[in-house]
Amino acid sequence: MPIIEGSSLKNYKYMDNVFSFEGCVSVQETSDWISPWRIEYDRADFYPFLSQIGSYKWSAPVGAQCSGVRICFSTDADTVMLELQNVIEGLKLDLYVNNCFSEELVMDGHTNTATFKDLNSNFKKIEIWLDQRHAFYLRNIWINKDAKICKTRITQRRWIHYGSSISHSREASTPSGIWTSIVARKLDLYLTNLGFAANCVIEPMIGRLIRDLPADFITLKLGINVHRRLTRRNFATNVIGFVQTIREKHTDTPLAIISPILSPSREKMKVIEDGLSLEEMRENLYNVVESCKKYGDRNIYYVDGLRIFGQDELKYLPDGLHPNAEGQEVFADKFIKEVFESFPA
Q1: Are 99 and 181 in contact (CB under 8 A)?
Q2: CA 114 to chain centre
Q3: Of all residues in the chain, what percent are helix, strand and coil, respectively (each to 5)?
Q4: Cβ(246)–Cβ(207) under 8 Å?
Q5: Phi and psi of 12, rounded to 5°?
Q6: Which helix (H) or strand (E) holds 331?
Q7: Residue 91 and residue 84: Cα distance in Å, rounded?
Q8: CA distances from 113 to 108, 167, 238 (A)
Q9: Phi and psi (nearest 5°) for 85?
Q10: Residues 197-234, buried b or exposed e (16+ Cβ, 10 A)?
Q11: Which residues have C-beta within 8 Å of that of residue 118, sequence separation ≥ 6?
Q12: By the 8 A CB rule, do 206 and 162 touch?
């Protein structure tokens, strides 16, 4: 491997196959850097609103923002350095060693390296959770010259979650502080978080994507982003088609549909003609699940979002919609209780 003259470190590229991005769907590769995506990057045109920078003036397309994505490998190195490209000031990285939190690193925007030092010299599992607000561009990983490195073997059960900005969790204070990450760590699950801020609109391509990914559990948190888009005529039918697409391959995978959490100003409001209030969406989603059961789906569940985040949790919703950083832990605990306890053991 190339060695910087006088350096005590040695670098590894993605093509060396000694580390992986987990929780992503695809990896964009260029001659200079690699970047994980939560959609199929090589079919980006099939996901137009997820592969382009939208009206929110974010630094990257929502499909490239790394909510729930982590770099994983095992090593006996006591120093790990990430050589990055296009570093944004304030970019955050959370380091976990053998599943235990070790360090949060915040980039100042003036350097392209993120260095974790004084790690123990034992062989250990490394996870670096990437900033849920931004895309991530990696050039190389550097470790001690004489250290070993290899991919970490994945043994966890796989959980796919689809949702809106509430699931994307840009409000979390750290990358591993998003509620889906908290749930995954507490239950020892492999997380793929398809929470797309403002873009949970029950699109057929996302249904196909979930259908084609390996999964032991699937959760769909639906409703809030279609408040201005779908009507009484097509809301439930879109959900039915979405679920049936997933069931083409995941015929008996435990699948939970979670209705909207509390949003006081939207509970009874109908934004468009023949639209649905959140109260009506909950009723529609319950009926969809009951219909699926009627026609033979033995492993589908309805969860009322108000049981996860309702009136008692209103103090964690400063904007009346998104759980704040403190609310992420509360959301995670309620999600485990109300959703995963509904699944078979």
Answers
A1: no
A2: 22
A3: 30, 25, 45
A4: yes
A5: -135, 140
A6: helix 325-338
A7: 11
A8: 10, 29, 45
A9: -130, 150
A10: bebbbbbeebbbbbbebebebbbbbbbbbbbeebeeee
A11: 78, 79
A12: yes
Mean pLDDT for all residues in the chain: 95
Tell me if 94 sits within 8 A of 175, measured CB to CB: yes
Give which of 334, 234, 210, 341 is closest to 284, Cα–Cα. Answer: 234
Instruction: Identify the residue whose tokens are 């190195």.
Output: 77
Burial of 196 (C-beta count, 10 Å sphere; 0-12/13-18/19+): buried
- Outline where DSSP puts E strands in 117-197: 124-130, 138-144, 149-150, 157-163, 189-195
Distance between CA 93 and CA 144 in Å, rounded? 20
Number of H-type helices and E-type strands within the chain: 6, 17
Among candidates 235, 234, 242, 243, which has minimal Cα distance to 293? 243
What dihedral angle (degrees, nearest 10) is formed by the CA atoms of 172, 86, 105, 117? 150
Global pTM exceeds 0.85:
yes
pLDDT value, residue 53: 86
* pLDDT one-digit tens code per residue, 242-268: 999 999 999 999 999 999 999 999 999
CA distances from 31 to 138, 143, 206 (A): 11, 21, 29
What single letter denotes the amino acid at residue 86?
A: N
